[in-house]
Model the fold of this input.
Amino acid sequence: MLLKELTEASGVSGNEKEVRDLIISEIKDYVDSYKIDRLGNIIAYKKGKDIGKKLMITAHMDEVGLMIKDIDKDGFLKFMTVGGIDKRILVSKPVLVGKDKLPGVIGAKPIHLQKPDERTRALNIDELYIDIGARSKEEAERYVSIGDYVIFDSEYVEFGEGLVKAKALDNRVGCSLLIKLIKEIKDLSFYAVFTVMEEVGLVGAGPAAYEVDPDYAIILEGTLCYDMPKLDTHLIPTYLNKGPAISLIDRTTIYNKDFRNKIVEIAKKNNIPYQFRKTSMGGNDSGKIHTTREGSITATISVPCRYIHSPASVMSKKDYDSTFALLKEILYQFEREEI
Amino acid sequence: METKVFLELLSNSKGVSGYEYPLQDTIISAFSKYLDNVSVDKLGNVIGFKKGTYKDNNVKIMIAAHMDEIGLMVKDIEDNGFIRFTNIGGIDPRTILGQEVIVHGVEDLFGVIGSKPPHLQEPSEHNKAIKMEDMIIDTGYPKEKVEELVNIGDPITIRRNVKNLLGNRIAGKALDDRAGVAALYECMKELNKIQHEADIYFVTTVQEEVSMAGALVSSYKINPDIGIAVDVGFGATPELPISTTIELGKGPAITLGGNIHPNLRKKLVDIAKEYNIPSQVEVTPGPTGTDARAMQITRDGIPSLLLSIPLRYMHTSVELLDVEDVRNTGKLLAFFVASISNDNLEGLLCY
Amino acid sequence: MNINFSLLKELVGIYGPASNEKTIREYITKEIKDYVDEIEIDSLGNLIARKKGNGKKIMISAHMDQIGLMVIDIDEKGFLRFTNVGGISPFISISQKVVFENGTVGIIYHEPVDDISKLKLSNMYIDIGAFSKEEAEKKVSIGDICIYKTEFEENENVVFTSYLDDRVGCFIAIEAIKKINNPINDLYFVFSTQEEVGLRGAKTAAYKIDPDIGIALDVTAHGDTPKAKRFAVGLNKGAAIKVKDNSIICHPKIRELLVNIAKENEIPYQMEVLEFGGTDSGAIHVTKEGVPSGVISIPTRYVHSTVEMASKNDIINCLKLLIKFLESEINI
Done:
């Protein structure tokens, strides 16, 4: 199952190879051309009806994770975070280290040995380390190198009423949607771009947009979802099971009003549930894309994901399906030149 | 001239971010001996060009080191002639208290950075760092004289000449990144003795410390196939965790991480081993805080590398390094760029 | 030089928050179209007006966007919740009137908080006097942006109003367009968009134009009010010539040229070293192969409040300096 394979693959920002190879194997028979650019972005092109406007649809391949920065004298691995990870979610988690996915754990001092006030303080990254079971530095060095990337050990699980738990829903969900679009849309010309290193500063998006130079771009994302009970509605960025989240504004873009309104119109006309992303926190590849060269008009459409940037992020299959339905309708409108 | 002599000359010269012009002549005249031409672009970057042996559509490699240094700037003149100032680039205010400075006005003025004497401070003040807002530069002149010689906006540098310490070690200001510029010089001297197919652009960039404007526009202009930044890395000292530092005397650090092209990096590491040049590893997850960051995202992307010369006490006026590391960096650069050809480029750049 | 401030009075109140500058763009187009050779609008909505000449290609940028508030939620009782578009201070916003594109007026207030110093925008709301969610939704939609309601005041010394930032820059640019005949340089006047959220419009406009020289017109801060943070710029001391801010170290040759022109023409000026903030030149100077750029700043008190105040003499002197600069032979 595609989303399972994508989320379980390893692709920390700067080390997207496994995901890239997987995506290429999925799309190569459905695109007219593709290339891997100088930063590792996949830039693919599907030829169909030429609507006189260059459309680019993009999803970033990378996930947040860790990177080994030192192997200490006893064989414990010190690490740093890659991308925005709340350090408090790291303790007491299993991980997979390096290309060979060596199992390890991020341990913690037993509660018995802690003073009462210690338990209220968040642990610093410097106090954490990964234990792979090595008995010495030399043994660890046989299996691990400084610079190895580390992913959470978290497999794809379907649970509850149509929910999915996996790591990296941000943004394998976007990649999965884009792959599906590539396979199913036949009559429209567009560029499908899978970018690198979005999580560490939207690095891949600028050069990809420079190369493609689109007029319009649709950015597919997994976005934050925090729908706790009894919260004021304006403090809830998105809800699960209320459909794709359409971005209004974030740290890197104020989304074009006309394009956004058109998308809402399409959702309403086709009875597809939708919601607005009600926070201006965060950013995504749109930030770089819409200001590259002479600029372009962008929209970001996201699947809401609870517990984003943690080993156990959660999304709803219903949201995934309605997001895909909305995207297809948007592309039909492009094809009919009604945008 | 000897690379160490060039480095001392550079360190003792002035060139605060945005005001690198005083360095241009020194760099141009040193570079011109080894390069086919040297020019200056619209923002003041010095761009030197050395043609390779290949005929046309040649591989282009850009090597960049920033020539700007952090410094200070006059922001106001008090009624008694004291100068109020702000920082250009990242300056820890604790490192400038009690320093001697040069205010680069109509002429260079000697000054001292002072503040309230400890005798007059409350006991609670003693443990607090003094803010730049509360410091002044005393040039010894009254307001009228200061206003004749100094304008708001004039740059200020710390008055420091290079100190020769034990062995190959020297300390001085602006070794970040004049050491990189010296490494470029060492590289071009080395390249004069060996064949290289690729065209090489040696760029001493401006304003890296504030905005990377120099690297952005020069890499746009040159549009190289490979971009290599040469900067400084955190040299090990007792209070720093080992995992965040690199050691003096053990050669340049070759950075590993998202800003760096993985295959190119492997080639660089292989070259270091092949030619017995000492090197170390430095790990950075995302964009590095160097010209390599600017180069990587220019136009449709430039595969980038970063070499870091180990440097202690970064962003103080007593930055300390081992000159042997500068020489080894230059040599490694030379052997690496000489190993790149039109034939092997594609293979090296693939993912 | 005598200038009529009634145009400035019009400009400051016209709706145009960042990303939604259509109304102000249309107004400015009408004002300038008889005085320029070409007009273009790009993907980000920048208004680019060219006065043809043979010399250097100069891009003059004044941003037409304003800070404002975007509605992100309408609650059950009809209160509007919002996020900021550009730099909005919670404290300045309390009890201010706001107005939406369709004319709907509201006021900003806040939930009761224990410690007012910790007030955040998420504790605040806009009250448009609707008595239900349905009623509110008839007037306002999620995604709509409102601006502070503007009241322009003036006396013989100063003007004060919301949105001198940067409608005063636009005002100076429009006056320059009207007063310059037969330009010796090739002048591209850009009324840029989305400066307040990150110099976004200027970036794409500069890429398109690829100028030889860039000059921005924007407001700068002040240091001349009681216990103000130390800053050498104050009202009525002349056009401020920027040395640096957080987005640019102005090209020394451009800066020196501006200083020399001011001296030669007896235009009062002051030097500006700003320790925060940015202007369109921050985006222009790193375009393509690099663009030597500078900034002429209008000293302004209380920036990003509803009572931004500037000296009329300073505004006139900035205009004089700009015109003389654009009419010089510039050799960089």
Observations:
- Chain A is about 25% helix and 25% strand.
